[in-house]
Write a structure and sequence with these properties.
The chain is mainly beta. Helix content is about 5%, strand content about 60%. The strands form 2 sheets. Strands 4-5-6-7-8-9-10-11-12-14-15-16 form a 12-stranded antiparallel barrel. A two-stranded antiparallel sheet has the order 1-2. The longest helix is centred in the N-terminal third of the chain and has 15 residues.
Length: about 325
Amino acid sequence: MRRITTWVSQAGMRGVGWCVLSCCVFVSVCVSARAAGVADEPMPLPSIEVSGLKVGASALYDDNVTRSDSDILSDESLSVSLDDSVILPLTAWMRLVLSGGVQFEHFDHWVGLSHADLAAGAQFQYRPAASFYAPIIQFGVSARALGYQDSLRSGGASIANLTALEALTDQITASLGAEHEERRAENSTFDGHGDRVRIHVDDSLSSTLTLYGGLAKRYGDAVTSSFRDPDNRAIALALAPDPAFGSTDRIAYRFKASSIIGTVGMNYALAVHQSLDLSWQKVTLFPVRLPSPSATQAKYVDNQVVLSYLVQF
């Protein structure tokens, strides 16, 4: 029941979701088979399973909601999310997971960033054997409808991803993945696409405490919001006034960028199907182009701290 927060390089856009519980189920099945001395023999095909409604309530602090290297603004937000999924077994080694959810997020000061999201996805999972160290291969697609109070950002996003999940020990699990994202918005400045590779590690220290961390590299479109800036204009692929921050003098600039995303966090189980999650994520973003041959490399840094209460019914 660990929540994962992923920073997406559209100004004010943040994805909220849950760890895919089906991965945990697959790993637990492997552990049980190993303990019982079962080799790589097919298991009986399980029945269709509904995972149960998952609800999350989160508080966020973001020290750079403008995703800028100057004219930086911070804010806090409160959000609530509801998710559910259905697991459809295909064979003893393959299954399909269908998921859907909704999220509402309200920003305290820059209310133009407040939004409601509706998401749906499908994920194909394959495990080649029942042995404990057999990896889980996942391919998924998802889509989101995004409605922002600042309508220029409203639109939709789609993601395709490929992930390999491996149990390294009985308490440490690692995953390696890649994804491609496409986004369309009411204003083309907030359109974009990007590619990401990532690694993630979970360490279950006890039955109640899990530590986790991840590192990702992304290349693609990013958006920054600042007062009129000749350097940003020189590298911009698109630009438009950005009223989300209370001033008609602020401009949103879209440009190509490379970013490094680091995440560390902890999850503490309060009771069965209930937990608290605390995470810190740092994004360091570098524009690919320079405004002039003699210009120095700009750097945009964003830090997010999120505290969440998670429950499954």
